[in-house]
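Page 42, continued from yesterday. The earlier attempt failed because a stray header line got pasted into the input along with the sequence. Redoing it now with the clean sequence only.
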Amino acid sequence: MERRQFLNWVGVGALAAYLPVAIAACSEESNAEKATPKADAEGFVTIGTVAQLNEKGSILNDELEIIAFRNPETKEIVALNPVCPHKGCNVKWKAEEKILECPCHDSKFALDGKVERGPAKKGLEVYETKEKEESILVKIA
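This time it went through. Structure tokens are written below.
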């Protein structure tokens, strides 16, 4: 086999190997999985149901970067960005302590997103929420 013929076969083989990957990456199914939920006219998206919140104690939507929980004192639903501004770890809702805690470096945040204890210097972003027909909606736009 000549060198040129060998290189042609290697090129065709590489193209054949990568073609299914390229087709899968461009398929509609892949893009649909990554699509952001559509907001309503007021900019609210549904992140879960009241039943889910009551069952789990909190709802974490990684795609939209939202954590929602019920304020133990006022019973209102609170929604925050769960990404700790210190190093980017997701905070955890500690209902018994009424605090949000970063598992990476132990920063603590109040129910309104303000820093209670560092090393984080900046608080968590707070989102407007509402309940509608047993759904929890958060304003992202």
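Notes: The longest strand covers residues 44-49.
Reminder to self: strip header lines before submitting.
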